[in-house]
Amino acid sequence: EPEVTQTPSHQVTQMGQEVILRCVPISNHLYFYWYRQILGQKVEFLVSFYNNEISEKSEIFDDQFSVERPDGSNFTLKIRSTKLEDSAMYFCASSDPRGLVQRMETQYFGPGTRLLVL
Amino acid sequence: AQKITQTQPGMFVQEKEAVTLDCTYDTSDPSYGLFWYKQPSSGEMIFLIYQGSYDQQNATEGRYSLNFQKARKSANLVISASQLGDSAMYFCAMREAPFGSYDKVIFGPGTSLSVIP
Q1: Which is nearest to B96 in space by CA: B28, B22, B1, B6?
Q2: Fewer CB within a 10 Å sphere, N or C end of chain B?
């Protein structure tokens, strides 16, 4: 069964450093998302991406964050200058456009990247 | 204001028994979808079941069923014949389709389920 994959599974970085989290969405999906989950808290939406542009972003997704689809398979989240409070699990998700009429596509999540900023 | 409420932070169930995890939601949009995800201790987010606001019947997927009561805005997850592997965090989530903002999924705070042998 096709699945979303994410690399690395764990990343430790120093405050102020740049990190790039990588995702390979399910191959026929066209909508891509990033969420984060701070330890012990709920999952929060960061950004959605369609047709090579951001379709929606949350207030968390400030100028330190950017997303890119550099080729036909990868979808990346870059944090330009990490802060301690960026420590979290980051989930990538993708969805299938066949539910287009009601926009009710199920989002399938990757296994997550656990980011620790020291 | 909370869009998704899960009033049970933790639940216990005996193996092989059924368990209901509560979820209520708040939306003024007539078109929305409701999801349940399972998050085991390993951290991944596993899709379990989906219910559309216009669906006439309650969704079922194997041992999972969704008790959808639209007027009460509740979407409880029922797990039948609990197994030890069901021990995990369970998140109720909603996707609204208001004009111009139809992409994100909003998650509830989660319910931690422990299955006792």
Answers
A1: B28
A2: N
The residue among B55, B91, B103, B105 with the most chain A CBs within 10 A of its CB, best to mutate, is B103
Reported as a single tens digit per residue, the pLDDT across A33-51 is 999 999 888 899 999 998 8
- CA dist A8 and B58 (Å) reads 38
Cβ–Cβ gap A109/B104 under 8 Å:
no
Question: Which of B66, B104, B106, B111 is the best mutation test for A, with the most CBs of A within 10 A?
Answer: B104
Q: Mind giving me the DSSP string for B30-91? A: S-EEEEEEEE-TT---EEEEEEETT-SS--EETTEEEEEETTTTEEEEEE-S--GGG-EEEE
Half-sphere exposure of A106 (CA within 13 A, CB side): 17
What's the rounded Cα separation, in Å, for the pair A22 and A8?
Answer: 7
Read off the pLDDT of residues B53-110 as tens digits, 9 standing for 90 and up. Answer: 888 899 999 999 999 999 999 999 999 999 999 999 999 999 876 554 456 889 999 9
Residue of A nearest to B29 (CA): A102
What confidence tier does A71 reach under pLDDT thresholds 50, 70, 90? Answer: confident
A80 in helix, strand or coil? coil
